[in-house]
Structure formats: structure tokens, C-alpha cells
Amino acid sequence: MDQRDLGEEIYVVDFEGNTLHSYSKFGDVPDRYGVLMAPLTFVDNHHFLAYGFVGFNTY
Fold this sequence. Notes:
about 40% strand; three-stranded antiparallel sheet; globular; about 0% helix; mainly beta
């Protein structure tokens, strides 16, 4: 995860370092999690869970 002052970019990469997906959480977006309270956790092969200051979000 790349954390900056005004936003964050979440990268999903494979074991070779290839970027598979990226998710921008820059600015005031509806699915923003706020400040992360715990590391991102994979739920299954297609989703991960973010536990943030504003609650839980699954992406």
C-alpha cells in the first residue's frame, strides 16, 4: 500500500511483483475507509477487507 498525505493507492501484486489491480482511495470517495486500523486482509481469492476508522469495507 502506498500511503500519502491526501490519499492512498492499494496495489494487489503477484509473487513475481506484477501489479494485478490497483485501487485509488484518494480524496472523499464513498467507499473510503479512513485511517487503517489493521493490515489489509484477504477474504478469498477475489476480495480483501479493510478495517478503517470509518468501519469495515470489502473490495
